[in-house]
Amino acid sequence: MTYAREERSALCDLLDRLGPDAPTLCTGWTTYDLAAHLALRERRPDAMGGIALKPLAGYTASVQNGLKAKHPFPELVGLVREPGGVYRLPFLDEAVNTLEFFVHHEDVRRAQPSWEPRELSDDLERLIWKRVAAGARMMLRKAPVGVVLHRLGGGVALGGPRGGTRVEVTGRAAELLMFCFGRQRHARVELTGDPEAVERLRAASLGV
């Protein structure tokens, strides 16, 4: 089983366990909303534009709410559990969905009381770091200050403005991923630098 499928399955198991009304780290979304979002990504490509483009966000939201109205929560989770559309192709699912489902799995885990970071395999840690290092410039393009990512165990990546103040962000690969995906306050990382710059980076809108 690929890491994308493992994270998808683990997330769906957690959704089934928590039910439709549990909180997530996605602002304003319950687990029901998150399940509808994931189903929309794969089964309603006509509505995907609003995920990234604000002018289309209204249509995307209406389709997402329509999925909730049409499908009871267990049924919607069932749709998410099986890859849809082009993601039925294992290589594409792995390429696109490994980080997507990892982050959303953590969005649910870390919104619950007393969460702790998971112990990940060395292979998965290395894969996550490879993707983070390759995508740091894009994920940190809205950072208000320069960012230097330091992976515990080895590895450095840069993002944000190329000149001026820099903040050093240190942690395991998975924690750096959560930070770069805009979950700064829920990532177990150490930030070093000018205190004002650190707070500006913590509050910034990051991610893809």
Automatic annotation (TrEMBL):
InterPro entries to which the protein is assigned, alphabetical: CHP03085, DinB/YfiT-like, Maleyloyr_isom
Task: Specify the superkingdom.
Answer: Bacteria
* Xref: NCBIfam families: maleylpyruvate isomerase family mycothiol-dependent enzyme, TIGR03085 family metal-binding protein
What protein is this chain from? Uncharacterized protein (TIGR03085 family)
Q: What is the lineage of its organism?
A: Bacteria, Bacillati, Actinomycetota, Actinomycetes, Streptosporangiales
